[in-house]
Amino acid sequence: MKRHAHILHIVHFMRCAFQMKYFWTGPWGMSRILFLLNRYLSPAISVLALFCVSLPNPGPKSIRSIRSIDSERSCLSSCKRGIQTLFLISIVALGVVQATLVVRVWYLFSRSRLTRLAMIAAFTITNLVSLYFAIMAGIQLEITPNLTRFHIYGCRADRPPRFWRLWLPSLVLHTLLYSLTAFRALKNRRVFKEAPILKRLVRDGGFFYFVVFISVLFTAIGSFLQQYPTINVPAIFSNFTVATTSIAASRVMLSIHSLAAKLGSDSAWLLNNIELSRVPWRQGATEGEIIVDMFRGNARGDVYDQDEPDSPSNSFMSLKTSRVGRWDDETW
After folding, report:
1. Per-residue pLDDT tens over the stretch 129-163
2. Which of 211, 224, 82, 94 is nearest to 163 (CA)?
3. pTM here?
4. Which sequence ranges are marked TM in the entry (predicted)?
């Protein structure tokens, strides 16, 4: 667990310069608040986990030193409450990660109120179900005595039964969110072919979904393998799923904000479905060039349809060719 916390802290603070550039300055918004919560809540959980492990756990040795039944019960209660709190805060941290992705997909469906309501409903239901399973796991938690023969002390607990249920609602929600992202890209194939924005969203979404799937799979399988404590105990008590999803979500948010900075725009504008579909632009002859076309005469709408034949009323002109930044894809 100590090694896990050390690696988590190193990864979280590796790109501190990007955090300061995109999230530590500027106006406060939902994206900024969620990023900071996600970025620093997971290390706080690791510190709490280390603290819970170091709590005194009543055993034969501690009872002789305490010489009080009340003190023994106090140590037992502190140990159990610490682990229960750890379970609940882990679900809260996962909820922050999921809220970050919901906001990200929210902008992609600005015209579909039904899709937005479905996302909010799925987010609420899955988090409530996960919270219920976390509470049940905390109630069924049993503290084990110290193994003085092997010089093992501290707060220790039996592995809760069916612990894998905590992560299944999260996997269902992430599957839904990535499916909506892929659907949004496939629905606008003409835009997707020329737009690095949607390509980045699909690529990052696929990477994030892969991380979530592997994390949940490891935790679920490890929860079943009770005869192998070297796998089972880390899968339940190491907060592996929270750490990996938190790091992946931070990378996704840094990726879209760095792309917005390269294109000289705001991340919310880039993710907005209306703005992506209404601008008649195409890729230029060289890398990083964008040609924006403007209709003359009786323009019929915001979107240029390449399948329509040319006519005096539908003719267009190349309004501007500008260098908006090289697409070097060095975000990762």
Report:
1. 999 998 998 888 877 765 555 555 567 777 787 78
2. 224
3. 0.64
4. 36-56, 86-107, 119-139, 166-186, 207-225
Question: At which residue do the structure tokens 């209660």 appear?
Answer: 77
Measure the CA–CA gap between 154 and 1, rounded to whole angstroms.
14
Domain ranges, ordered by start, for the chain: 2-271, 279-323
Structure tokens at 191: 């835009």
Nearest CA to 157 out of 49, 63, 281 is that of 49
CATH of domain 2-271: 1.20.1070
Edge-to-edge strand order for the sheet containing 281-283? 281-283, 289-295, 316-323
Give strand ranges (E) for the chain: 281-283, 289-295, 316-323
Least confident piece of the model among 77-86, 214-223, 243-252, 259-268: 259-268
Over its C-alpha atoms, the chain yields an Rg (Å, rounded) of 25
Cβ neighbour number for residue 286 with a 10 Å cutoff:
9
Query: pLDDT tens digit string along 290-309?
Result: 566 555 444 444 433 444 44
Q: For position 292, what pLDDT does the model report?
A: 60
Are 142 and 158 a contacting pair, CB within 8 Å? Answer: yes
Residue 281 has φ and ψ, to the nearest 5°, of -125, 155
